């Protein structure tokens, strides 16, 4: 649900923000809300009934389990109800399987494979002659797909399908296949069987049902048996092991499956215990990422087994070119909170390289689409899950009937039309709200006179909304608008101190802000100072009044203090420039952290998010550390991308100061060392910030801590490719997609 932007099952009200004008709900809006509420209730019913409905049964796996004989009675099936299920679940065209049910041409191989497995199971016990006849007719009518490269090929098809042909002939069945196709697929089988590397050995055990005629020592296959008795949690491979070796543990596993699914066919089932989860790369990565991001104190030691690329290449997933497993490992490896987590560093390195290779060679495997891989690589976990944009991409590429192919085809998820419709409606509601906010901010800019200040940088409002939407959830409109107003104010005031104002004007503005309510006796030395002061003063008082309603206490003294600190930092940097003073790093960083001006943007707007924040909390060390590490990351990211421009303009910068300290002068060699040191400092602060956000024993509400992390991600995004103006085109495209562009999605008609 969250991947599609469904954060909670509620509708946006008609009046979403205290800043926006109240609007009357039209009859159409009321009907839409009623429809949304009905969708939400149907989804709740699904959640109450179970988070996921059972997977549709797999005729392929069911057929292989149905072939297992009873111990001591080889002519009797151990699971007769599965034989019965096969006869009761044949499609009208004679086929079995998802490929036959959905009638999708590209699933023809799956339909033929599943149908032959079911025919073979029935013939094994000499039952269902009419079902066998219809199944063989379907295979004959669709035999051309066997060698059709355009059809999706089930895993192990070139090994298992020829084996089933041989077994069928041995049972006296006459298969309606062209001899040339049979000869060709047996040739392909021989090619696959010639490979003997370690990874192929695991793969061969995974498709053991296709190797019953050539495996001489099943003890070698037992090397891949899990503690639950299965081979890779595969009913078909485990059935082959049970048939040919009568292994007790394999039979116990099949008996447990039989008890679980009873009279229905066997479905693809979830891993059941800790050992299975830890050993499965994809599931282990997902579990680690979810648990750590939800604040659980979980160790990364489990990733030591995946730290080398060879572990993947020697696995079934590696042999299958499994993009989904690679992507999940890569995502999990990004969540590093300690410098000692070298195993995550290693996993990140090799998975990133393999994902790039898959993109360049166009070998991204389903159900992952190339855009998902591109997004993960372009925007690392810490640099911008740009959630509104990510939600848009996920909705537009979401397939309710997304099919994944393993040994047989299965639905990769259990989504319904309601989920897609609800995600679409929530995106449209958020987008409409963002458009209202753009108009609100544009009106405010004119109201306070910022449009009259020609020295100030301009920033499209869509980008401001886009950035704020990645920090604050869609329902936090007041906080988002307040953050945008303060962002614009800090940019304009910063530009004023960076050359837009004279020394007299800078001192005048600083004195006015320091006096705050007692400013009347000071006066304004210019119109620019008057506009800037009243823009800061009046806007801050308005935000403070709204915050007081939420916090049940006055916070205006904190707002005043934050602005005083920021403007003093701006003044210190202006003085350095005017006097051509080169500070030490120890002098620069405390000022630089504050002058990045997150103080008015983040801590103040946190008061509008919801949870009450006491004076003790906002004055406490944990709160200061959250702001400090967020500010360090933002400041150093900015410095890393703007040092050349600032050097030319005569400004100091952490990169330049590091280079001076390293070599005594700025040279190419000292600059490279400096940039390396700055990047290391960013990593250190980012990891510490993530640790603070994820810690369990915190007095600060999790929702507030997460906003510091979101702001850090926005800083990484903003300076991903250079100074903001260098990446303005990319940002504008992303912002337009979020704020203006309609979803490219077609909903089923109701």
TrEMBL record:
Residues 268-377 form the Terpene synthase N-terminal domain. Keywords: Lyase, Magnesium, Metal-binding, Plant defense. The keyword Hydrolase does not apply. GO terms for biological process: defense response; diterpenoid biosynthetic process. Residues 446-685 form the Terpene synthase metal-binding domain. It comes from the Eukaryota. GO terms for molecular function: magnesium ion binding; terpene synthase activity. SUPFAM superfamilies: Terpenoid cyclases/Protein prenyltransferases, Terpenoid synthases. Residues 31-60 are annotated as: Disordered. This is Stemod-13(17)-ene synthase. It comes from Dichanthelium oligosanthes.
């Amino acid at each position: 649900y969250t991947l599609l932007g469904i954060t909670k099952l509620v509708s946006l009200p008609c009046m979403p923000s205290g800043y926006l004008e109240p609007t009357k709900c039209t009859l159409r809006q009321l009907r839409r809300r009623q429809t949304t509420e009905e969708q939400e209730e149907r989804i709740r019913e699904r959640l109450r009934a179970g988070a996921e409905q059972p997977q549709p049964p797999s005729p392929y796996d069911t057929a292989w389990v149905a072939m297992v004989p009873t111990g001591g009675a080889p002519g009797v099936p151990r699971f007769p109800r599965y034989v019965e299920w096969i006869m009761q679940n044949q499609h009208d065209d004679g086929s079995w399987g998802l490929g036959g049910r959905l009638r999708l041409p590209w699933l023809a191989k799956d339909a033929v494979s599943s149908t032959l497995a079911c025919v073979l199971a029935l013939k094994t016990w000499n039952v269902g002659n009419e079902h066998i006849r219809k199944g063989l007719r379907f295979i004959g009518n669709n035999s051309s797909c066997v060698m059709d490269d355009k059809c999706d090929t089930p895993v192990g098809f070139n090994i298992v399908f020829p084996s089933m042909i041989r077994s069928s002939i041995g049972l006296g069945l006459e298969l309606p296949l062209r001899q040339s196709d049979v000869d060709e697929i047996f040739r392909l089988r021989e090619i696959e069987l010639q490979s003997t590397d370690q990874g192929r050995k695991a793969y061969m055990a995974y498709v053991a049902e296709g190797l019953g005629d050539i495996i001489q020592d099943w003890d070698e296959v037992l090397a891949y048996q899990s503690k639950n008795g299965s081979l890779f949690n595969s009913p078909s491979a485990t059935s082959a092991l049970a048939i040919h070796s009568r292994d007790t543990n394999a039979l116990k596993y099949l008996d447990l499956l039989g008890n679980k699914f009873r009279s229905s066919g066997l479905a693809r089932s979830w891993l059941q215990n800790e050992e299975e989860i830890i050993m499965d790369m994809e599931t282990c990565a997902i579990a680690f990422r979810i648990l750590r991001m939800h604040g659980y104190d979980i160790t990364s030691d489990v990733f030591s087994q995946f730290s080398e690329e060879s572990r993947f290449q020697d696995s079934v997933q590696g042999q299958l070119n499994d993009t989904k497993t690679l992507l999940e490992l890569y995502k999990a490896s990004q969540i590093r909170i300690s410098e000692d987590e070298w195993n995550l560093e290693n996993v990140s390195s090799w998975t990133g390289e393999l994902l790039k290779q898959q993109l360049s060679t166009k070998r991204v495997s389903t159900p992952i689409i190339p855009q998902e891989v591109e997004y993960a690589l372009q925007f690392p976990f810490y640099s911008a899950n740009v959630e509104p944009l990510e939600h848009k991409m996920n909705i537009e590429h979401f397939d309710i009937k997304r099919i994944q192919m393993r040994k047989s085809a299965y639905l990769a998820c259990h989504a319904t039309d309601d989920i897609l419709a609800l995600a679409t409606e929530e995106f449209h509601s958020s987008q409409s709200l963002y458009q209202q906010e753009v108009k609100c901010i544009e009106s405010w800019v004119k109201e306070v006179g910022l449009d009259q200040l020609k020295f100030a940088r301009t920033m499209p409002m869509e980008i401001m909304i886009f950035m704020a939407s990645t920090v604050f959830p869609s329902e936090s409109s007041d906080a988002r608008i307040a953050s945008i107003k303060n962002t614009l104010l800090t940019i304009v005031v910063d530009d004023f101190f960076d050359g837009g104002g004279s020394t007299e004007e800078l001192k005048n503005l600083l004195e006015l802000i320091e006096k705050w309510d007692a400013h009347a006796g000071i006066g304004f030395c210019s119109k620019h100072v008057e506009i800037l002061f009243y823009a800061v003063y009046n806007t801050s008082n308005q935000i403070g009044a709204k915050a007081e309603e939420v916090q049940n206490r006055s916070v205006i003294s904190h707002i005043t203090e934050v602005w005083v600190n920021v403007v003093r930092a701006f003044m210190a940097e202006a003085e350095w420039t005017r006097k051509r003073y080169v500070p030490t790093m120890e002098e620069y960083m405390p000022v630089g952290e504050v002058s990045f001006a997150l103080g008015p943007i983040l801590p103040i707007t946190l008061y509008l998010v919801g949870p009450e924040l006491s004076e003790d909390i906002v004055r406490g060390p944990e709160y200061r550390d959250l702001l400090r590490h967020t500010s360090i990351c933002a400041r150093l990211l900015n410095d890393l991308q703007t040092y050349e421009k600032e050097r030319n303009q005569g400004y100091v910068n952490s990169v330049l100061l590091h280079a001076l300290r390293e070599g005594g002068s700025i040279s190419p060699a000292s600059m490279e060392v400096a940039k390396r040191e700055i990047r290391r400092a960013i990593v250190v602060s980012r990891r510490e910030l993530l640790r603070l956000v994820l810690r369990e024993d915190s007095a600060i509400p999790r929702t507030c801590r997460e906003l510091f992390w979101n702001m850090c991600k926005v800083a990484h995004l903003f300076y991903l490719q250079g100074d903001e103006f260098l990446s303005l085109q990319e940002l504008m495209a992303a912002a337009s997609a979020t704020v203006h562009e309609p979803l490219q999605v077609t909903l089923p008609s109701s």
